[in-house]
Amino acid sequence: MDKEIRMFGDDEESKDRQFVNALARGLEILRCFRPGETYLTNAELASRTGIPKPTVSRLTHTLTRLGYLAYSDSQGQYRLASGVLALGYSMLANLDVRDIARPAMHELAEYSRASVSIGVRDRLSMVYVETCRSSARVTLQLTVGSRIPIATTSMGKALMCALPAHEFDFLMDHIRLADEENWPHIKLGIEQAQRDYAERGFCMALGEWHSDIHSVGVPLLGIEREKAMAFNCGGPSYVLSREKLESDLGPRLVQLVRKVETDMGRV
Question: Is 90 exceeded by the pLDDT of residue 139?
């Protein structure tokens, strides 16, 4: 099963009478599809979700009838269908922050010769909802919909630093359970991010996710109509040195995000 946060269990209905277990299981099926994977079998879906295969078969049949999955007779497998795309597009179209932030993001991307992006949390990952790449020949090739880990990236750590204590502790517990072998090192990185955020207003990731990538992250604060999210500026380590992030791009990203908050009517 997926090592990220489990959102439901067989006994969920006994804990919460309002919780619809069948709906939750259907959504888990849709979550199984990852970038670069077009088709999945019922057996693969059962393995990833921990849902019994007979139940998976009924769920995929239902999701296909509703237009969220499509079945390939030649492959004998399922793929995501246009119904999922319509939901995702509606979500993105209603994120006001993208339109407001985009001009400043483009400007900072060109200045830094790197990429500037916005992400939202999905369990133990951050998902890009907007990204602006510079015209430099070498930049990060992440696009809208790309997923990065929350625990070892500047964007993810920045978002965590802005969370209420109970949500932060909840995530820390699940990050530990997902990777107990590397937990001591991960914990040190998050604790350093907390200190950096308290002192400077931004967090850094220097080769923690990928050894040749450096980045800086800043959370978006206090916007009622937007989901909790964070910005980052990242690129190759030979372009973005620690000194450049600390003295230049970190403060610039803080300034960008604070302006976005003001333009959106921060509360």
Answer: no
